Amino acid sequence: MSSNKIINKSNKTVVLFSCLSIIIIVVALFVVFMVNGEKENGQKEVEAASLTDLVIPKDEITQTAKFYPIKAGSVNMEILAVKASDGSIRTAFNTCQVCNGSPRAYYEQQGDVLVCQNCGNRFSTDMIEQQRGGCNPVPIMKDEKIDDGANIIIPKELIEKNTVLFTSNWKTR
Predict the structure, then answer these.
(1) CATH, residue 67
(2) Total structural domains within the chain
(3) Which residue from 70, 73, 114, 132 puts its CA 20 to 30 A from 107's CA?
């Protein structure tokens, strides 16, 4: 009889230890999945919230165009800013209105002109933001941006609205 008590006591210990082990494993798996789920959701929220207004400090803009890369969701975009000969700051989306759709539909500066890397059209920096249509950078007009005295602010809503100007293979060589 005493050997049965020892076996039963030993079996109870094994069963109890096994149950506790299973509970610990289940809790650990639950915690791991919850943390990973929060991390993925958190990353998605950060991605979605990462697009903000573009703030361009006016004191960093010169007659040499400055290019500001932006990622709106999965779309790579770029805004350019340059000081015109009259001292005003001109802004545009760095994509050609006519060549749009080509991976090379963007401008690079050569002297005082911007050159479309797809068609070769040369566009004076003084003409940026002065006209829409044709083979030129897509202007960001005065009424579409905010000048607070120290900065030019391009609203995120305007950026999001213009993602259609940029193809998935934009600026690939």
Answers:
(1) 2.102.10
(2) 2
(3) 73
SS3 label, residue 124:
strand
135 and 108 in a single domain? The answer is: yes
In a domain, 172, yes or no: no
Quick one: the chain helix, strand, coil %, rounded to 5? Answer: 40, 30, 30
d(CA 28, CA 30): 5
Of the candidates 162, 92, 105, 109, which has an alpha carbon nearest to the alpha carbon of residue 135? Answer: 105
Q: How far is Cα 64 from Cα 48, in angstroms, rounded to an integer?
A: 32
Q: Is 9 exposed, middle or buried (0-12, 13-18, 19+ CB in 10 A)?
A: exposed
- At 17 the three-state DSSP class reads helix
170 within some domain: no
Distance CA 89, CA 91 (A): 7
Residue 58 shares a structural domain with residue 121: yes
Digit-by-digit pLDDT tens for the chain (173 residues) are 555 555 566 666 666 566 556 666 644 444 444 444 443 433 323 233 467 999 999 999 999 999 999 998 889 999 999 999 999 999 999 998 888 888 999 999 999 899 999 999 998 999 999 877 778 899 999 999 999 999 999 999 999 999 999 887 888 65
| Amino acid in position 63 | Q
Q: Pick the closest to residue 162 from 83, 81, 44, 51 (CA basis).
A: 51
**19 and 93 both lie in a single domain:** no
